[in-house]
Each structure stands twice: as C-alpha cells, then as structure tokens.
Design goal:
Number of strands: 11
CATH architecture of the largest domain: 2-Layer Sandwich
Order of helices and strands: EHEHEHEHEHEHEHHEEHEHE
Mean pLDDT: 89
Strand order of the largest sheet: 6-8-9-7-10-11
CATH superfamily of the largest domain: Reverse transcriptase/Diguanylate cyclase domain
Helix content: 40-55%
Number of helices: 10
Largest sheet: 6 strands, mixed
Shape: elongated
Low-confidence stretches: none
CATH topology of the largest domain: Alpha-Beta Plaits
CATH class of the largest domain: Alpha Beta
Length: 322
C-alpha cells in the first residue's frame, strides 16, 4: 500500500520550450531571448517529427507557428492533444496575419492554450509563456491534490494489516447496495479458536494467519464482492446482486478455501478454520437497515459457533412481501 505523498511535485532544472517555426530568423531571435531568460529551448523548422521530438525532450510548452510547411499548426495541435503523454502540454500558436481570425478560432478550438500575433514584443511573449507555465503548474498541483485525496480516502478505508477493506468501507458498500434496492448478501466469518493461536504461537503468528486468511478470501470471491475486516479475527463479505442460495454456496467455498490453507513448517501453525453466518435481502419492498442485516448474519454466525464451528449457517430469510 503506497503512502500518501505530502510533498507536491516540482520541476527539476529550467523549464523547456520547444519552438516549431519555419522562419529561421524568428526562431533564432526567440531561441536567443528565451535562453537568456533562463529557459531550455529546443527548435524544429517544421512539424515533421514533432511528436517524436516532444516525447523525447518533454517540453513544458510548445510555441508553434500556425502556417507551417506540410501540416499546419492547427493539425499538429490536434495530434499533440491526442498523444497520451503530451496531451496536457501548453501550446501557444503564432500567426503573422492580424485578420486571420478563422485560424485563431480554429486553433483555440482544437486545443491551443493561447495565440500571439507576430511580430510581438519579446517582453510580452515571455509574459504569455509565463502565464501558461503558471497555469500548467496550477493544474499539476490540482491533479496532485486530487490524487493525494483519493489515496488518503482509499487508505482510510483499508485494514492496514491485511490490505482488505475495513469495517467502515464494508458497511458503506452494504448501504450502497441496499440504496440501489438490489439483492445483497452478507457473510460474517470468524476464525475458530484464534485466541489459542495467539497464546500458543505469538501475535506475529496470529497476524500471519489473518493475512493468509484475507488472501484466501480474496481468491474465492467475485470481482464485485467486497471483503472487509470487521475487527479482530472477524471478516465480512458483502456480495451485491446475490441471492441467499448463491451466498450460501459462496460461504461454503470460503470455508473450504480457508480450511485448505497451509503454513510453513517452521511456524508450527496448524490448519485454521472459520465459522460463517450468512443472510441476504431479496431486493423487494423496503430495504432493511444495514445494521439489521449485519445483526442477522451475526446471529447465524453465533449459531455456527454453537453448532461446533467450521461450518456455515444460513439465517432464515425474511418473507417476501405479498
């Protein structure tokens, strides 16, 4: 599980500008000025090889003439925007025609971030480049912040020992399924005689058993099912779109999967078993509260324990509405 990164990303070295312009004199002027302004500047005399060059150099901004030999700057802008690695790179288009409104509109519509009319004052050009680079940095920080938030939320919903979901996430998954008014099953699993394992072999061995059991459960459920550690040695499986009969079959598969677990001989840990209580809501009428469904599964789990452990007990289903 990855830790949340509290340090925002930063650029290393000078920011890179790629100039794409068939006017050699203007290219040289801009390259000299921008280099003296602290930028790392690359250049192309046409759009040929633009994607290859940009992918190799990874510019922070592309300054590109609209009227280029071969493909136009507008066509090249579309290509850059479609490239999965370059698609967010800021692009400033250049035009030498004051009344070339169609090209400007088309360029902005196809994904350019700004345009300049040449000849242009060098101070203004640098200012416009700085604005786009600042905007790009702000967008990167925003994406980073969203990713940090997503990671934090994900980690806050996971059990740190086993890596499966925690009780909060499991209860939310059950609540969501009930809110959608779809059939949903709940299975509560409790490791049999787990205290004896901790007392006999030590807590590190107990932790290893919990991790192994969680892995066995993950290998036996469907993609839409959620496994959650509810606390201590208790796990839950929330199975959307699952009838009581199908849930009983799933629970038996889980029980058998855990019973087949083996541990390294040096640990001396014997095989482990689980008791399982199962219930389900049929999807008709008013859905029950999540806590009520969990309580039903818990009562069935208690009966499984009382009945000798290493078994599945299915709760009596509620009658269907007439």
């Amino acid at each position: 599980m990855s830790a949340v990164n509290t340090i925002p990303p930063s650029n290393e070295g000078p920011e890179r500008i790629l100039i794409v312009d068939d006017d050699e004199a203007r290219r040289r002027l801009f390259r000299t000025f921008l280099s003296k302004s602290g930028f790392d500047v690359g250049e192309l005399p046409s759009g040929e090889g633009l994607l290859e060059t940009a992918n190799a150099q990874r510019p922070d901004l592309i300054l590109m003439d609209i009227m280029l030999p071969g493909r136009t700057g507008i066509e090249l802008t579309r290509e850059v925007r479609r490239d999965p690695d370059l698609g967010r790179t800021p692009i400033i288009l250049m035009t030498a025609a004051l009344d070339d409104e169609n090209s400007i509109v088309n360029g902005l519509a196809c994904g350019a971030d700004d345009y300049v009319v040449t000849p242009i004052g060098l101070a203004e050009l640098k200012a416009r480049i700085r604005v786009q680079l600042r905007n790009q940095r702000d967008r990167q920080l925003l994406r980073w912040a969203f990713e940090q938030r997503r990671q934090f939320k994900d980690e806050s919903r996971r059990d740190p020992l086993t890596g499966v979901s925690n009780r909060r996430a499991g209860e939310e998954a059950l609540q969501d399924a009930l809110a959608r008014r779809e059939p949903v099953a709940v299975a509560l699993l409790d490791l049999d005689h787990f205290k004896r394992i901790n007392d006999t072999y030590g807590h590190p061995a107990g932790d290893a058993v919990l991790v192994a059991v969680a892995g066995a459960l993950e290998g036996a459920v469907r993609g839409d099912d959620m496994i959650a550690r509810f606390g201590g040695e208790e796990f839950a499986v929330v199975a959307p779109s699952t009838t009581l009969e199908a849930a009983a079959e799933l629970a038996e598969r889980l029980r058998e999967r855990v019973a087949r677990l083996t541990f390294p001989s040096e640990t001396a840990i014997p095989s482990v078993t689980v008791s399982i209580g199962v219930t389900a809501w049929h999807g008709f009428g008013e859905p029950p509260e999540p806590a009520a469904l969990i309580a039903e599964a818990d009562r069935a789990l208690y009966d499984a324990k009382e009945g000798g452990r290493d078994r599945v007990v299915v709760a009596q289903p509620a009658p269907l509405p007439e």
